[in-house]
Amino acid sequence: MKTNQVxxxxxxxxxxxRRGRQLALALLYAADVGHRxxxxxxxxxxxxxxxxxxxxxxxxxxAVKIGAxxxxxxxxxxxxxxxxxxxxxxTISEQAEGWRIERMPVVDRNILRLALTEMWYLPExxxxxxxxEAVELAKEYATAESGKFINGILGAVSRQxxxxxxx
Length: 167
Fold this sequence. Notes:
Helix content is 79%, strand content 0%. By secondary structure, the protein is mainly α. Helix 1 crosses helix 3 (45-55). The chain is globular and about 45 Å long. It starts with a helix and ends with a helix.
C-alpha cells in the first residue's frame, strides 16, 4: 500500500471516529433529556446520522464513504457505555468533587461518559487523543468552562489509571 493511501485511510478513520463521537453524544443526549433508555435510542443512530450529516457540511460522497463507519463507532461507544454505565458514572461522581452526576450539565456528563468509555474499553484509541477529542466536543457543544472541567476530570482519571497500572 502506498504512503498516500495509508495517510488517507488514517485520516478517514480519525474523521469517522470524531463524527462517531458526535453521533454518540447526540444519542446519549437524546436518551438523557428524553428520559428514555439507551436501548430505545440506539436504533435511532441511522436517522440521527442523516440529520447530522448536513450540519457537518459533509459531501454526499464522503457521507457514503464513511457513514457506516461513523454509525458503527457511535453504536460501539454507546453500547460499551451501556454495558459499563455503573462503574463509569461512579468514577465520574468520585472525580467531580462537589458535583452529583445528575446535577452536571447534560452535555458535560455525557461527554465524560463517552470519554471514559473510550479510555477504558476501546484501547486502540490513545488516551491522549480521547481526552483531546472530549475537550473539543466540550468546546463545540457545551459551555465555556466545560472544556476545563472535562479535561480536569479525565486528566485525574488518566493519572490514577497510570499510577495503578501493574509494572
